[in-house]
Known about the structure:
Blueprint: E1 4-10, E2 12-16, H1 35-55, E3 66-75, E4 80-87, H2 92-105, E5 119-128, H3 135-144, H4 151-164, H5 172-184, H6 188-219, H7 223-235, H8 239-252, H9 258-271
Antiparallel strand pairs: 1-2, 1-5, 3-4, 3-5
Amino acid sequence: MGRLGLKYIIAISLCTFIIGPVYSEGFDYTQTQRRIPVQEEFGYYMTTVREKISKNWTPPDILEEGHATVIFKLDSSGNILSASVKESSGDKFYDESALNSIYKAAPYNRFHDGASRDSITVVYSFDSSIVSANHLKELVAESEKYVNRDNIEARNILDKAIKSIEGDPASYFLYARRCKLDKLLGDIEAARTDLEKSKMYKMAYDKRRIAKCKEALAEDETPFAYFTLANAYELAGDYQNAIYNIDKAISMTQLNQAYKRYRAELIMKSDK
């Protein structure tokens, strides 16, 4: 897996690693002389928060760099009072994986005895870079460089990618890409064959993805688990089951409006 980054801040930047908090509740940033005491008071506490969240975050496989910021509020007992995505990555699954890790890590430690406040607001930044597991996507990106410039070379690269996982349903998107190149090269019969294989493998891949999401749901029934299952059904074109599962996610939490927005998207797609 590639780089993961975590960053947190208490008035001023303390470290850069994977995730990062900013304390703002009841803190006067205009009075610089009060910043150091806040750092000293909650510095160790935020180390424990960072450790718990980092253990509970699994970033989705992405080809490009991802970044999302989550804001959440903790009471003195370490319970979450509120949480939401402050800065979106532009990908709903990435955002939800970040937000989900905040909830999975709860409850957090209690504030130390004599803490000067009964709650804190934390801003955490989630960052990830290229994941090495995306080797096939990297080959597709390499192939794209040659499209319309040297289509034979572009196709040769895809041939290499397909051969490396021949028979694996995950190759469905490779066949779809090669189908387009077949057409550019004027090989209509090969294009037809690749299109049929792409559809066949995608159907098998969708079934596998749905089965994995169901297994995860059986192990840990959470709103996020229902969200990922809804997303799997959406990718398979099964909007009825996608809506059913996002409704389950919505019924389990009132804190996340993103699920309701996602439901609205599914309704629009299902009506087309």
